[in-house]
Amino acid sequence: MSKPRKSSKPSKQRTRQQPPAPVAITENSPCPCGREASYGECCAPFHQGRTAAPTAERLMRSRYSAFAVGDTAYLLRSWHSTTRPTTLELDPVQRWTGLEILATTGGSAFHTEGTVAFRAHYTVRGQAGSQDEHSRFVREDGHWVYVDALPDDGA
């Protein structure tokens, strides 16, 4: 076997394909959660800590929006202290594209617990997908927080 020859031509280095930049969501953009309001009037006040979500459904919607805008700090703050992970890393190529609320139980200003069943739509590298979950919420220190996903009943 002969020894490889050195070339005087510059070598072509492989370039890593960078994930697409996140969709810019401004205060005036439609809110990712799907409500008929701008982001600045809908979920941004929750993300910025100016006010708390008044219902379990609004918390669910604000958490979805936090995934869409990449706000991991809000996701962790709005997670129950007993089930909250220590860190959270979001997939940089996943884009959240729509939210459907399928059902709710409890979760109003008069309740201390509630559930929200939802379908969250996303794309990853151009491939569409969705995630269905039935989430449980409770009040902790007077604020709605996400506890966990209820087990799939197989229906």
Which key phrases capture this entry?
alpha+beta; 4-stranded antiparallel β-sheet; 4 strands; disordered N terminus
How does this structure look, described?
This protein is of the alpha+beta class and 155 residues long. 15% of the residues lie in helices and 30% in strands. The chain has three helices and four strands, in the order αααββββ. A four-stranded antiparallel β-sheet has the order 1-2-3-4, with helices on one face. Strand 2 and strand 3 form a beta hairpin. It is globular and about 40 Å long.
Question: In this structure, how is the largest beta sheet organized?
Answer: 4 strands, antiparallel
Give the overall form.
Answer: globular
Order of helical and strand elements = HHHEEEE
Arithmetic mean pLDDT: 88
- Give unreliable regions as ranges: 1-21
Question: What structural class is derived from the secondary structure elements?
Answer: alpha+beta
Strand order of the largest sheet: 1-2-3-4
Number of helical stretches of at least 4 residues: 3
What is the tally of beta strands? Answer: 4
Q: Could you write a compact summary of the structure shown?
A:
Helices cover 15% and strands 30% of the residues. The protein is an alpha+beta fold and 155 residues long.
SSE diagram, text form:
Layout: H1 44-47, H2 56-69, H3 72-77, E1 94-106, E2 113-124, E3 127-140, E4 143-149
